[in-house]
Amino acid sequence: MPHAPTPDVLPEGLTVSEDAAGVLTLGFSGDLNSRTVARLWAPALAQVRGRVGAGRPEAVLVRLELAQAGYIDGAGLALLVKLRAEAEARGAKVELLGLSGSHAHLLGLAGDAEREAVKRPKERRGLKVLVTAGMGNALAGMAAVVSFVGECSLVVWEALRHPERVRWKDVLLAAMAVGVESMPILLLVGFLMGLIMSFQSVITLQRFGGEIFVPNMLGLVMFREMGPLVTAILLAARSGSAFAAEIGTMCVNEELDAMTTMGISPVRFLVGPRILASLFMVPFMTLFFNFASLVGGALVMVSIGFPLVTFTSRVFTNVTGTDLVGSLAKILVFSLLVAGVSCLRGLNTGGGASAVGRSTTSAVVSGLILITLADGVFAVLFYYLKI
Predict the structure, then answer these.
(1) I need a surface site. Which of 5, 6, 84, 315 has the fewest CB within 10 A?
(2) What is the pLDDT of residues 146-180, one digit of tens each?
(3) In which band, very low, low, confident or very high, does the pLDDT at 21 lie, cut at 50, 70 and 90?
(4) Which H or E run includes 239?
């Protein structure tokens, strides 16, 4: 005998009937949108859960009658998907009557999305395949680096040949960020390093009465090695990370794709000004760093009784023009490597916000590695050149 619930039990827009054959019919009328589904959701699910299974004679078929339904949006489709899932979970078949073709297609897509993805067996790759793939990736990376170096070299060469074509406003802004804004931390680190190295040297040389050689040591170490090296490290940590983050953010926001579409070279427009600014500013930063370290060393020597004129005369007597030229060559190479690799990491940024962080980290680490390698090359070169 059919079960006909009283009208006051069900909300408007929902009718329920069940025949003796166990066919449960849920009829919907009116629009099935977010507003109406909110009051239909719980009663409709309650009817399916109460009449299909749960100790009752199970309905073998559930029909969802939609001939009288009007507009159906995403909320209505979600209700139909949920009702179908509940009925099938209780062993009943489901029929949808009166559903338009477009809605039936969307409902089918929703059902496909709910199916568990087929797990593919883990691919086993032999050693030969792994080695070949690794070599291919390495060659592709080398080709990209060579192409980038060529473009950067061309940008610098054209800037020297045709200065009027350079966007000097961008170069000035980058120079302010690279040099002027980093000057306080640069001077502080230089002063502290000169102070610390002088104190440590004085403690050791006092045993032999050799305090007078502290200015010689400090000037030689700072101008030949520590000045360019520490300045380059600060450049990588501060400006290099900023270069990678700025360009990487533009890459994530697809600004680089827009520039390429408009025929603007990202290397010429973004990388060129940053490399030129680094080449112009870093030599001056190294001189300021060396000067700050000498101030720290002079403070130590004066505090133990040596006159300032003795300190300055011994420093500049021991430091020659060759040392200054070698220091300049080092810092130019260091700045070119740091700025170049930082911009390259920014250009190679992948998708997503986390990619910017990875590019920034990679830029700093790559810069430090390149600085160390280049410094080793200069050490061997200076040794064989007797510099």
Answers:
(1) 6
(2) 778 888 888 888 888 888 888 888 899 999 989 88
(3) confident
(4) none
Beta-carbon contacts of residue 359 (< 8 Å; ≥ 6 apart): 244, 245, 248, 345, 346, 348, 349
* Average pLDDT for the chain: 84
Q: Is 31 helix (H, G, I), strand (E, B) or coil?
A: strand
CATH code for residues 14-114 = 3.30.750.24
Greatest C-alpha distance within the chain: 116
CA distance 272 to 157: 11
Residue 306 CA to residue 297 CA, distance in Å, equals 11
pLDDT tens, 227-260? 999 999 999 999 999 999 999 998 888 888 888 8
* Host H or E run for residue 180: none
Write down the pLDDT at residue 349.
86
Structure tokens at 258: 């827009």
H helices present in 73-182, as ranges: 74-89, 101-114, 127-161, 168-175
16, 56 contact by CB (below 8 A): no
How distant, in Å, are the alpha carbons of 157, 200, 318 from that of 205? Answer: 49, 9, 18
Question: Domain extents for the chain?
Answer: 14-114, 142-384
Percent pLDDT > 90 in the chain is 27
3 state DSSP class of 57: coil
CA atoms of 202 and 52, how far apart (whole Å): 92
Tokens 């579409």 belong to which residue?
261
DSSP notation for 194-231: HHHHHHHHHHHHGGGT-GGGHHHHHHHHIIIIIHHHHH
